[in-house]
Amino acid sequence: MPMRRLRVPPSLRAWGRRRARRLAVAAERGLRAWERRPAATRRHASVAVGLGLMAVLGLVALSCAPRRPVPPPEPIYTPVSLQSVPGWAGDRLIEARPALSRSCARLATLPPDRPMAPRGSAALRAVAGSVGDWQAACRRLDGVPADDADAFRAALERGFRAYAVTSTDASAHGLFTGYYEAHIHAARAPDARYRFPVYGPPDDLSVENGQGRHAATGDPYHSRAEIEDGALEGKAPVLFWADDPVDLHILHIQGSGQVTLPDGTGTRIGYAANNGRPFVGIGRLVSERGLADGRSMPAIRAWLRAHPEQGRALMRENGRYIFFREITGAGPIGALGVPLTPLRSLAVDPAVLPLGSLVWLSTTDPGGRPLRRLMAAQDTGSAIKGINRGDVFWGAGEAAFQQAGRMASPGRTWLLVPRAPGTDPLMM
């Protein structure tokens, strides 16, 4: 269809012509007035306008220029005496011996020439030494009588030196949270009560640098929402069927847990792999939306159970999904491959504190009481990244859940490393 021409009324065309003539007259008068001004005034004004225009263009250029990324903070390791670390004299160090013995047993299986901190910075690798250094230190500690607390303390003070761990970012503050061994009620076959699958690693999952991928494409694996919608049917073994989706989600966050079966017997499951998706903290989500106290896992659990539909949608926003394996014997098993010890095992960032090392921790518990003690770096976590960032293992059961779920405390760490044989312990 041809377009019709828009007809402009004659009165409107006349108004437009009058308006144009007035603007032209005003412009001509302004130009003549400018020309009547002294030449010096015109030059100064022109320079001012030019400088102003240059300043504006400069600011625009700066705003458009690519910004150099701010480098991430780096850890600093400063030697200090063990006796100077806060709380050293007040800790019953011998209570950390079982955890240390487990770390030593694991280190004994590694090549002596392997760096203790293969993922750390050059500064950390230089401080931490080799696995062989730690193997020698473990052998020396093995010679201390098992029940002699004073001799064990003396052996640590004689055989180890401390390095305060700080950051190149002077404004940074440490953060120490807690975790525990989760618990679910589950069955080996589904029924009306047990409806939520606990999966083992899928057949088409590969793991690269600790992250799950599609074996065929190398892309991140299915998200939590996709898995809950059936993406794993026929691809992954179902180890158990849980009765509570909230407890199951907490199990995914903690990474390991106890399973109580319908006949009252129990078993354990531990971390096997993940789907390679980013972890989204449910505490942050409920805090941002004003739903519950995101710093308290007990409060989060209560809200999720009180709002099942909203809770299910919220949990699906955490794309991270954990695959498990059934384990026998002591547990839970940390990333070092040894059973964890309540209040003596610490999850760390291996780029800052080596797995298998000894760490002095100074922080507070959920009640604000000082928590200063010798810890064994035996685990990691997807949210445990950065300098002076750690996760304290509190054990199993509801009491451990209440403590671990409320802990979010500032604090500091000191890395303990073996001295060379014959080194004077009075020298830092």
What is shown here, in short?
The protein is α+β, with helices and mostly antiparallel strands and 428 residues long. The chain has 12 helices and 16 strands.
**Count of strand segments:** 16
Pattern of helices and strands: HHEHHHHEEEEEHEHEEHHHEEEEEHEE
Percent helix range: 25-40%
The number of distinct helices, counting runs of at least 4 residues, comes to 12
Task: Characterize the overall form.
Answer: globular
Beta content: 15-25%
Mean pLDDT: 87
CATH architecture descriptor name of the domain at 179-342 and 394-407 = Beta Barrel
Unreliable stretches covering 5 or more consecutive residues: 1-6
What's the CATH C level of the domain at 179-342 and 394-407? Mainly Beta
Tell me the major beta sheet: 14 strands, mixed
Q: CATH superfamily membership of the domain at 179-342 and 394-407, which one?
A: Barwin-like endoglucanases
Gyration radius, rounded:
32 Å
Q: What fold name stands as the CATH topology of the domain at 179-342 and 394-407?
A: Ribosomal Protein L25, Chain P
Distance between the termini: 92 Å
SS class: alpha+beta
Q: Give the oligomeric state of the chains in this entry, treating copies of one chain as homo and distinct chains as hetero.
A: single chain
